[in-house]
Amino acid sequence: MTQLFRGMDQAALRAAYDNVAAVADVAERMLGFQERSAALYAALPCRRDVAYGPRPRQRFDWFPCERPDAPIFVFIHGGYWQARSKEDFAFVASGPLGRGFNVVLAEYTLAPDASMTQIVDEVDALLAVLAANRDGLGTRGPVCLAGHSAGGQLSAHYRTHESVVHAMPISALVDLEPIAMSWLNEKLQLTQMEIDAYSPMRHIGKGVPMTVSVGTAELPELVRHSEEYVAACRQAGEQVEFVPLAGCNHFTILEDLARADGVQMEALVSGMGRK
């Protein structure tokens, strides 16, 4: 078969990026995530489905902490830009809430209903709404923009946004070229412009400090994305803390994020100069 990316053909690319196939208990774990998320919604004050645009999925959930001037942890879920929802991963809000953050769980339109350009623009629209505080949410605090997997790419892309003071890409996909060459592109239909414009690895410029995390038990390609991104940022003189989580895979890394005393939250509050 034809070699497409770093010596990989289509079969090898699928194996390199199929996070679901790589984790034997993913179905049970996702069910657990959904159950824990439903329990969190039931237990804590939350404004659900606040609109930041006209499309059905242009909405977010707001979990307030006790201080209106607290920092804001914005979380963008993964799913290769074409699957999952904020409701699947709401349980992760427990971690930042326990460290004094307000939490925003962001939703966005999925491919093929939206192109990569449209998805990227939706995150910009979300940040604009939060900054404008048009719904009286009390969003005066600094914003940490976090995201997992596909959400990690969106987080890293907006590390230069005027509203963001810290970025936290988790298991992030920072190079879209292998995505465009794989089965994942059937719905995304990435253009060369989008690959160039929205691959954070190709835009290592001056931006806010970052906390970059990845599980050591993730697929090697996912680990490579984070390691090479951190190395490039450091070479450019950017402030970035690398947090490899021993033994975590692409899904269990979120269980650590959901802990107020987890490795990632400890690194984040330290990186933001908070206690």
Automatic annotation (TrEMBL):
InterPro entries attached to this UniProt entry: AB_hydrolase_fold, BD-FAE-like_dom, GDXG_lipolytic_enzyme
Nucleus keyword on record: no
Signal peptide: none
Pfam families: BD-FAE (PF20434)
GO molecular function: hydrolase activity
Keyword Hydrolase attached: yes
Keywords, alphabetical: Hydrolase
Domain BD-FAE-like: 69-156
Protein name in UniProt: BD-FAE-like domain-containing protein
Gene source species: Paraburkholderia sediminicola
